[in-house]
Fold this protein.
Amino acid sequence: MRLMNAPKRNLALATAILTAGGASVMAQPTLPPPVAATSTNAGAPQIQFAAPLHEFGRVKSGEPVKYTYVFTNTGNALLIINSVQPQCGCTTAGEWTKQVEPGQTGSIPIQFNTLGYNGSVFKQVTVRCNVTNQPIVFLQLKGTVYKPFEVIPQMAVLNVPPDAGTASAVVTITNNTEEPLMLSSPQSNNRTFAAELKTNTPGKSYQLTISTVPPLAMGSAQAQIVLQTGLTNPPTLNVPAVMNVQPAIMVVPSYITLAPGPLAAPVTNSVSISNRGTNSVELSDPVVSVPGVEAQIKETQAGKAFLAFVAFPQGFQVPPGQQVALSFKTTHPRFPVVKVPIMQMPRPMPRAVAAPSPVKVTPRPPVVRATPHPPVANATPRPPVPPRPKLPPPPLPAPSGH
């Protein structure tokens, strides 16, 4: 019976162990599920402008445009404005806010000087800050600048053709203000210029005609045409005028140049003469104002082109203080005589050769010879040293026996 009950006891024991193990496993606590990692913002500033573009509309030239840009730090760290740089010198930045805490606002005042501007204007200001994803911000100014009184063209240029005795130019004056503009009769500070004013629209638009007054000298001249406005700003309008009288007879080059005199050898120079007028001309009687110089004229195109040759002898030199010129006659009514100056280059001054500086020899010091000492009076002479006695040679060794 004992042997028969042993397997049953073993089976019961095994069943109990398995039952206890299963209960132990079921009794273990359940772990909570892992929490997903979330990214945290370590702190960064952000900049946001209320209006990065300012349109100032229409202003009069000379009136300053002032505007203050307002910005907010929408981040969670300190915002630092490193620099504010306008694009040109006409735009300046005032004292701006350098540092802004999170949630706070700052300002950047800007001023634009409109003096000298006319028409549409666009200006830009560069702002640099410590925002990582937006280190540079551009602020903009936009608008229109007008001049109270617009003068077109601003300068009257009168080019007088060779065969014309006069020339004229037209200047328009426009009033861009609401106040009417009443102009007086124009006045010129140069008698060679005349001016006449015509009203297109009373108080708004005028036409100024500037013309030359003959006789005209070859070359250029300038004048100022002044008109009274009756206003305090500005009380007058000034219109500059320039006149260029084109020569009918043109000489190229306009003067003759010689090497320094006296000339080492004979020299012949030439100049080109052209008739720029519509009618043909004749040239004659070429002459130089000093003796010894020969001149002649050769016609290369009938009535239009010529060459003048001037031969200078060996040793020629322009006399000091004297003006020398080639002159010839023409059949042109405005230029009966044409003169071509003759200029001689000055002889270069010889270069002064500096004398060689003397070589400084340092004398050697004299050789000092030793002077023998004089004999001392009452000195006892030293006794002579006796010679050493000669020793006898050592004895020779005795011969050995066998």
